[in-house]
From TrEMBL:
Membrane-traversing stretches: none
Name of the featured protein: ComF family protein
Domain annotation Double zinc ribbon: ranges: 11-61
Family: Belongs to the ComF/GntX family.
Signal sequence coordinates: none
Source organism (scientific name): Aromatoleum tolulyticum
Pfam families, A to Z: DZR_2 (PF18912), Pribosyltran (PF00156)
Residues of the Phosphoribosyltransferase domain: 181-221
SUPFAM superfamilies: PRTase-like
Length: 229
């Protein structure tokens, strides 16, 4: 019935591809544009920065982050940046299922794992009306068959936007930004976020999670910036 409904919807109310504007049927991005999305090649397995080889990058060797691994679906370049920004700032919530689908193949190991979306400060949440990371994480956790925890961690400091700060200031900006409720003792925590730039926010969240017992923290992000900025 669901398949028939999708076929009927595609015929009666065809979508225009969000990227090229051509007919996309019931999809938000046509097949050609989806296949043509830029891809990440070889990356650092810890921070997912493009490195030219599947080895831990120099930055992670010099100062290992609190998280253990990162996998990103795509590089944060056109048109990926346009898709993410349309969700985050344009409130195109229909894009969450598409972006979540890009992360599905990056499933973490099965076991004592829990999915935690990157939390927003309550002030930002009221302003935006939704947490884009949580919206992406919901269908993702279902697809992976993992527990989703949306209230286990909160952001208690409304920090300055990371994009507005020099690289060295971003770590200091995030100190003490998160608070955990309860224990993650012995569990793998899968943190879901939309974009990773320097990784300072994910690093601070992982530090907080490990201080509450997490055995491993692995990141799953839709897009990774080509290089730290």
């Amino acid at each position: 019935m669901e398949a028939m409904a999708r076929i009927l919807a595609a015929r009666l109310m065809p979508n225009e591809c969000f990227v090229c504007g051509q007919g996309a049927g019931s999809a938000l991005v046509c097949g050609a544009c989806r296949e043509g999305l830029p891809r990440l090649a070889t990356v650092c397995p810890v921070c997912a920065i493009p490195s030219g080889e599947d080895l831990i990058c120099g930055s992670c060797q010099r100062a290992a982050p609190a998280f253990d691994a990162t996998a990103a679906a795509l590089p944060y370049v056109f048109p990926v940046d346009r898709l993410v920004q349309a969700l985050k700032y344009g409130r195109r919530l229909a894009l969450t299922r598409f972006l979540s689908g890009l992360l599905e193949p990056l499933a973490p190991p099965q076991g004592a794992a829990v999915v935690v979306p990157m939390p927003l400060h309550p002030g930002r949440l009221r302003e935006r009306g939704f947490n884009q990371a949580a919206e992406i994480a919901r269908p993702l956790a279902r697809a992976w068959g993992l527990q989703l925890e949306t209230g286990a961690v909160e952001r208690i400091r409304d920090t300055a936007p990371q994009a507005s700060l020099p690289w060295l200031e971003r770590r200091r900006n995030m100190r003490g930004a998160f608070r955990c409720h309860g224990s993650f003792e012995g569990r793998t925590v899968v943190v879901v976020d939309d974009v990773m730039t320097t990784g300072a926010t994910l690093d601070e969240l992982a530090r907080t999670l490990k201080s509450h017992g997490a055995a491993r923290v692995v990141n799953r992000v839709v897009a990774r910036t080509p290089s730290p900025v």
